Amino acid sequence: MTMTSTTPAPTPAPTPAATPAGTVAPSPGAATLASLVAGLLDGRIRVVDLTQTLAPEFPQIVLPPEMGQCLPFRIEEISRYDDRGPGWYWNNFSCGEHTGTHFDAPVHWISGRDLPDNAVDTVPVQRLIGPACVIDCSREAAADADFLLTKAFVLDWESKHGRIPPRAWVLMRTDWSRRTDPVEYQNFDETGQHTPGPDAEVARFLVEERDVLGFGSEAIGTDAGQGFHQRPPYPCHYYMHGAGRYGLQCLTNLDLLPPTGAVVIAPPLKIRQGSGSPLRVLALVPGA
Amino acid sequence: MSAPLTRPRRKNPVLATRMPTLPPGGRSRAALGLTAAAAEGRFALQTCAECGTVQYPPREACHRCLSVRLPWRTQDGAGQLLAHTQLHHSNDLFFRERLPWRLGMVRLDAGATVVAHLHGDVPGAPARVRVGAMLDRAGQAVLVAMPDKETPNMSDDRQLREMTCDPRFRKALVTDGKTALGQAVARALVQAGADIVWVGQAEPWKKLPGFDELLALPQVTAVALDVTDSRSVTELAGEIGGKVDIVVNTAEYHRATGIGARVGVETARSEMDVNYFGLLRLAQAFGPALRARAADGQSSACAWVNLLSIFALANFPAHGTFSASKAAALSLSQCLRAEMRPQGVRVVNVFPGPIDDEWNQLLPPPKLAPATLAGAVVKALRDGVEDVYPGDVAQEWLERWRDNPKALEREIAG
């Protein structure tokens, strides 16, 4: 439907009414969407891609080798304008649900296994678009790969940027995505992985006292590399998913987002009873 | 003594690379018995079960008593050189390019008289010699008369090298250099005189003990290679495929489970992806390059080694899905062998019993030390064999399997 006018109808009506000019008066929602589209067109709203490219060499989570493993991204050519298919190019790809930039649904964790609407196919779609609070921990993560985000750190952030609103993504900016060498990105030594993440207290605080939509990180998991040694183990997974909240990991370009005011669009693939899914994460941010 | 092998000069890029030719490869079914034994490094001849005659060439019946009961018996090959000659002309393309060529007639102590290729250190007739059966570039058994006693640089003999795949001054790729076995193979190749050993490295963020020390060897270079990633395989083939003379495929995924002990197929899929599809990807990417350089001078491309498992012959239920993946790899390697043989590139299958590693932790000894297995790989290349069953377990399984595969199936199932 084409809008010919953005002027609201003089008197609100329960159903769209014909205006004298013969057009339908836009509802407030329609006006908002029209404004959004206009903003995207004229640059008042910019779109930032928070997604890592799916490629075979992008690392996947490492578990002890006797355990079941999440498959990395793999791609095999079906044909490329050749004898296998003369006029077309296409591939088959395979990967785990938790490969590359991906979404974690509550059912991923044992603490969230009995919740309603806990899988990627049943997550309410209304929650797949939401505001984002970006907490900049890049200096701290550069100084300490095992940096843990604490409640005090978040409260300090709130003192500058305001209270985290309900149903917002909290994205932990660490600039970890700038580590383009997979060895640096994974950052293993004999004691395991060393990547930043939240501590147990802040994970619980964000769920119980800030009612967040979920937690997002730049590293391979929402939990820190040494998260297995926290109490409980992997606290971010435990508390977030236990309360029906979500996770986003392997994000990039968080440095392009404002501390507040961005809107994240993060719909996972609709995999039946899926525990997560690779996805394209986009952020809408105010233009200059 | 043979002239010691020296490092070949760099190839003149102006000249065309010689295309591979093969010696005559046709054999009767009876004669393939000689090839079957030579493939394992044995010299066997038909020995009549009725009259005891040892006969050569192989036939359908005993030439003395016409019995058809002609079991193959391993020979020690001792004999007397009766006559020798040197070919200076041949219309056969393979020999024409390799003239002059020494041949001789040997009376074996066991009775038969054979025509054999003559090692350069065998003096003129009469002389004591030791005859062995070796695979030639066509992959068929031929007889080679060697000096009675070891001579200096014996393996460097020009004619003998047409049968072998000595790593000396050659360049090798070890597809997974991170495991204990991969590291041992790389070290053994370096010790055997390989010029360059590229070692594949998948998932570089996973550090395994010993790998950094291996890379400290000047001949060893790590390369990114993940055999589950087609692009990684083709990229590496594009980078070094034209230089690799020997591929040793050590990449392996091994988990110790049967069907019932592990829910789902993901572990088995990973085993197939590495052990079977990994070989397929490698063969598609590196096979053509090796074939094209199979006659490229002294350090020609010459061999492809697959680390299989004795469990490829008969399923070991405790490691059931692994066994199945190795059986698949064995079948595919037979296809690879068939496709590499027209250019004379040898495909060597190694069938070890359990290796002393973490995935065989619960199996009782004897278990093969990685260094022992690596030594067997190098020996196979030097001897020019194509089927290797290293260690006591492999030897015993092989014997039982050949005797009665059904019995072995039942015995293993317990």
Can you walk through the features of this model?
- The complex is a heterodimer of chains A (288) and B (414).
- Chain A starts with 27 loop residues before the first helix and ends with a strand.
- Chain A contains six helices and 15 strands.
- Chain A has helices spanning 28-42, 138-143, 151-161, 182-186, 200-208, 235-242, and strands at 45-49, 74-82, 85-94, 102-104, 129-136, 148-149, 169-173, 188-189, 192-193, 197-198, 214-217, 246-249, 262-265, 276-278, 282-286.
- The radius of gyration of chain A is 22 Å and the shape is globular.
- Chain A has a single domain, classed as 3-Layer(bba) Sandwich (Glucose Oxidase, domain 1).
- Chain A is of the alpha/beta class and 288 residues long.
- In chain A, strand 2 and strand 3 form a beta hairpin.
- In chain A, the strands form four sheets. A nine-stranded mixed beta sheet of chain A has the order 1-15-13-5-7-11-12-4-14. In chain A, strands 2-3 form a two-stranded antiparallel ribbon.
- With 414 residues, chain B is an alpha/beta fold.
- Chain B folds into two domains: 32-162, no CATH class; 171-413, Rossmann fold.
- Chain B contains ten helices and 15 strands.
- Chain B has a seven-stranded parallel beta sheet with strand order 11-10-9-12-13-14-15, sandwiched between helices. Chain B has a five-stranded mixed β-barrel with strand order 4-5-6-8-7.
- Chain B starts with 31 loop residues before the first helix and ends with a helix.
- The A-B interface holds A 56-57, 59, 62, 66, 68-69, 71-72, 74-77, 182-183, 185-190 and B 203-207, 224, 226, 228-232, 255, 264, 266-267, 270.
